[in-house]
Amino acid sequence: MADIMSGSPDDAVKLEDPENQDEIIEICERAAFFYLRRLRQAISLSEEPSFKVHFQRLLKFTSYITPLLASGNYEGVDAKWTADSLEAIEALVQKYPDVVDLQLVHVVGSNLIDIVHEKVDTLEIMRNNNMLDRLHPHMNILEIGAGTGGTTRSVFEGLRRKYSAYKYTDISSGFFESARQIFKDEADKLTFTKLDIESDPSLQGFQDNSYDLIAGGLV
Ligand SMILES: C[S@@+](CC[C@H](N)C(=O)[O-])C[C@H]1O[C@@H](n2cnc3c(N)ncnc32)[C@H](O)[C@@H]1O
C-alpha cells in the first residue's frame, strides 16, 4: 500500500482536490505506513503460515518495508511517522472526506487485520459509499502476460469502463488478434504490445512510472 501514488506527476492519478494534492498524497503515504506497521505488530510470525498465500506475501512485504520506512532512508517518508497513533491518522484522513483515494487507503487500512484473517471482504468495504465506482476513472493500466485474457476479463468486469487506457501485453503477440475480438467493446481504450517481463521494460518501449495499476494473473 505504501507508494501507491508513485508515478510521474503528469501521468499519475489526478486527485479530486488538485490544490491540496501534495498534502493528500502525504497523508495517503502516512496512513499506509501506519496501517502496515500496525498489521505487522498484530500478527506473529508463527501465525503467518495459516493465512492465504497472498496475505502471507503481504506480511512478508510488510516485514521488509516497515523497518526501511522507519529508518528514515526512504524518500518521502518521515521517520517521525513511526510515532503516529490511530487518532492522529484518523484526524488527518478526515480533513479530506471527499477524496476517495484517501478514504480507500483508510478503509482498507483500518480493516487490514480483519481482512488478513478473512473476517472482512475487501471488495465489499471498498464498495461502501460507492468508493470503488468513484475511483480513478482516468486510470492507466498495464497487464503483463495477458495471454488468452482470463485475468483481463475479471479486471474489465470490475472496472466497468472506469479507466482511461489499458495496455494488453504478453511475451507472445500470438494472443493479440483473438483478444482484440474478445474485448472489442473496450477497443477504444485497448492497445496491444509485446512485453517480456523478464527483461527490462524500459528497453522494450515502456516508460518508467507511467502506470497507475499493473495487473498480472498466473504469469
Ligand atoms: C497461464 S497464462 C495466464 C494468462 C492470463 N494472465 C490469464 O489469467 O488467463 C501465462 C501467460 O504468461 C505469459 N508469459 C510467460 N512468460 C512471460 C514473460 N516472461 N513475460 C510476459 N509474459 C509471459 C504466457 O505467454 C501466457 O500467456
UniProtKB/TrEMBL annotation:
What Gene3D superfamilies does the record point to? Vaccinia Virus protein VP39 (3.40.50.150)
Q: What InterPro entries does UniProt report for this protein, alphabetically?
A: Methyltransf_12, SAM-dependent_MTases_sf
Q: Name one Pfam family in it.
A: Methyltransf_12
Domain (Methyltransferase type) spans 142-214
Q: Which residues form a coiled coil?
A: none
Q: What is this protein called?
A: Putative Lovastatin nonaketide synthase
| Phylogenetic classification of the source organism | Eukaryota, Fungi, Dikarya, Ascomycota, Pezizomycotina
